[in-house]
Specification:
six-stranded mixed sheet; alpha+beta; four-stranded antiparallel sheet; about 290 residues
Length: about 290
């Protein structure tokens, strides 16, 4: 893909130009013509480089941040940086290892019919075709694949609890009568924005502070007008590293806790797992289909 950076910071897509003499690396997916006869190149491994012919240097593009090329007095605005990153991702396969994901997935979803026939899951392309017929498997696959890619194996209990929650009702978290929210904090109290949202749900600040000060995890707070506020502490060697706050309305709490028999800790993990899965599906949409 060949583009040019315009004076207003936007991008213009160009047709292939045989007059451009720069030797484009084979792995390059995007080339942007820049001022001062320089180039910005995005490679199919996700890396970027910038410079003149025979003098390309690695460079990093970050979401929602301007790229300031001070030596050349060029600034690529954050909006254009995001556009470039998105265009490159759409030409890349999603990260993660299919075979490793399948091996882990089989340890807690062995009863899924797809694992009865290795021809349906060993080949990644065939597995992807079958995946469209099983939305639960699709969601858990991508969440697990991205988590393993990032080395976040501690997320597996969340996915196991999520599977218990969606058993026999895959859309339990999407029902109109079910409401939930989740907040994370490094301190024993949520930040001010989260705290305001929690107060608006019917949980007074002093009650939130009271449960945060109790050395119990998980712990819950009930509001007759709203539902339940759950607090879980997560860390290592008994020392909390961060706090997870979960809100559920009474209908969702009753379905998860009373009907599906999830304990309070499992309810927290299942909602957290749902949050992870939504994030993973959003992340998956950024890559090549």
């Amino acid at each position: 893909m060949l583009m040019e950076l315009m004076s207003d910071g936007s991008l213009a897509k160009l047709p292939p130009d045989p007059t451009i003499k720069i030797k484009i690396p084979e792995q390059a997916s995007i080339m942007v013509l820049m001022p001062h006869n320089k180039y910005l190149i995005g490679s199919n491994n996700g890396s970027w480089s910038y410079g003149a012919e025979n003098n390309m240097q690695p460079i990093f593009l970050y979401d929602d941040e301007n790229l300031n090329l001070r030596n050349d007095s060029v600034i690529i605005p954050a909006k254009t940086v995001n556009e470039l990153r998105n265009k490159l991702l759409l030409q890349m396969s999603p990260p993660g290892n299919h075979n490793a994901t399948i091996l882990m997935l089989k340890t807690f979803m062995r009863e899924n019919p797809i694992f009865d026939d290795e021809n349906k899951y060993k080949d990644e392309k065939i597995f992807m075709q079958n995946l469209e017929n099983d939305q639960v498997l699709k969601k858990i696959y991508w969440a697990l694949r991205f988590a393993m890619y990032r080395g976040e194996l501690e997320s597996i209990p969340r996915y196991k609890s999520w599977l218990k929650a969606v058993k026999d009702e895959p859309g339990i978290f999407e029902r109109e009568d079910h409401q939930y929210n989740i907040w994370f904090s490094l301190q024993d109290m949520p930040d001010e924005n989260a705290l305001n949202e929690i107060e608006n749900l019917g949980f007074p600040r002093e009650d939130v502070k009271r449960i945060s000060e109790q050395n119990i995890s998980p712990i819950l707070l009930f509001s007759p007008a709203s539902g339940y506020l759950l607090l879980g502490r997560f860390g290592r060697n008994g020392n909390p590293m961060f706090f997870v706050w979960i809100y559920l309305n009474s209908a969702l709490w009753n379905d998860l806790h009373e009907i599906k028999k999830l304990g309070t800790a499992e309810v927290i993990l299942s909602v957290w797992g749902q949050h992870d899965i939504q994030e993973s599906l959003s992340e998956r949409s950024k890559y090549k289909s």
